[in-house]
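[recover] target loaded
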């Protein structure tokens, strides 16, 4: 029988990527929606790991199953790591990313290249029914560009410049983004951790 992992996200776009990386002939990855679970979880942690653990643990306690959850965001060094864990809530959840991104470009208007460093961070937590918690964290390093560019991706991708690629994150194909991204890398790290656990 296939083993079942629950992934605590309601985002179907993410689920596709998660299934591609974590699912295999032995493991079935199920979203909360597929499992018919509704959980209103307050993400009040101060780090990405804390938030991922809060989500994974809450759903594990509700279901008794192995539960994974992620938390991600953008850290801008010149803004002391902001928006960080508040990336989704920055300037209000209803504010468009066009406006959020324009505001960030404005804040960094006269900031030179070497001070524009930034990274996307993704932490994934796995809560086991025996109470153990496994975590991993990966980043995609880059810098805040001088303009908004590209049609792919979402959120802060149009202002995130990748010097190694010579393009903005929103200009990457979905395949290339998965290869380089904080989330793609964290999912592959978690896959290795779970394999180490015999899953
Ligand atoms: P979540 O924890 O994955 O839901 O991400 C929280 C927020 O971080 C998102 O709403 C985005 O604002 C930002 N974010 C996370 N990953 C990315 C990315 O790959 N590109 C652009 N923005 C991202």
């Amino acid at each position: 029988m296939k083993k079942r992992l629950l992934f605590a996200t309601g985002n179907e776009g993410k689920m596709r990527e998660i299934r591609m990386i974590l699912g295999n002939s032995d493991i079935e990855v199920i979203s909360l929606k597929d499992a018919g679970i509704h959980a209103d979880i307050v993400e009040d942690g101060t780090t990405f790991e804390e938030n991922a653990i809060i989500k994974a643990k809450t759903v594990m306690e509700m279901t008794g199953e192995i539960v994974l959850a992620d938390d991600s965001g953008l850290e801008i060094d010149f803004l002391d790591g902001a928006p960080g864990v508040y990336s989704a809530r920055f300037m209000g959840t209803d504010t468009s990313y066009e406006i959020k991104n324009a505001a960030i470009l404005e804040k960094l208007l006269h900031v030179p290249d070497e001070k524009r460093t930034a990274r996307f961070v993704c932490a994934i937590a796995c809560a086991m029914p025996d109470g153990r918690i496994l975590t991993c964290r990966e980043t995609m390093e880059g810098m805040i560009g001088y303009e908004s560019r590209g049609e792919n991706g979402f959120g802060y991708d149009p202002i995130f410049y990748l010097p190694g690629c010579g393009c903005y994150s929103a200009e990457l194909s979905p395949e290339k983004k998965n290869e380089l991204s904080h989330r793609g890398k964290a999912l592959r790290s978690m896959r290795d951790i779970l394999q180490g656990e015999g899953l």
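[recover] notes: The mean pLDDT is 95.
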